[in-house]
Design a protein that fits this description.
The protein is α/β, with parallel strands linked by helices. The chain has one domain: 3-Layer(aba) Sandwich (Rossmann fold), CATH 3.40.50. Strand 3 and strand 4 form a beta hairpin. Helix 2 packs across helix 8, helix 3 runs parallel beside helix 5 and helix 5 packs parallel to helix 7. The longest helix is centred in the last third of the chain and has 21 residues.
Amino acid sequence: MRFMFVGDSQTIGRAGDYTWRYRMWQHLNATFGGPYAIVGPRTELYDTSADAPVSHAYGDPGFPAKAQRHLAGWGEGWLHMAPLIRGAVASTKADVLLVALGLIDLGFYTNSDQTAENVRAFLREARAANPRVRAVLLPVIPNVRARDEPDFAAECARFNELLAKAVADLDQPGSPLLLATPPEAYDLHTDTYDGTHPGPSGEHKLAAAFATAMHQAWDIGGPYEAAPTPW
């Protein structure tokens, strides 16, 4: 089974981060129980000093290059990934997409209705490359802008409703979709380093959201257990 991470800055991570992708790799290694691969056309982290995705300085230098693969970008959202996903799925033969997008769209590019249309376009394109592709979609999670701006919070809430509707409308037996449940307790002070991007505890919580959805609905992997480390 081939897994592809798709996301924005919360998923690509910055130089020095472990990333929730790393936490999911650890989880799959511990629970998957068979051969699997992490696929994607990119491997880099975002380097804030260079203002470009050019770093491979992951928090754990032992994170293998083959597990660093993804389709994520700093400042990229559903708007940007919808035109890319068909080619990425076709070239990597991805079976499962783990998608965390939406915040950057609502923050800079599109309103909730437009963003929801891009979700649907993304799924059409993914299925055009692999009619049996599966996807787990994470709603927009708590963030500092939504905390401080009621209008933006309302847009995030509306998009999350539209995302749930898209999942319900487009779910198919041969190409199932899941809506991951956002972490119940997500503290912007302790789970992020700036109110938006996950720190170590936030990375574990995002990985757990995806892992729990797959385990409960598809019996993929097992219950999520964070590694007993300080990071």
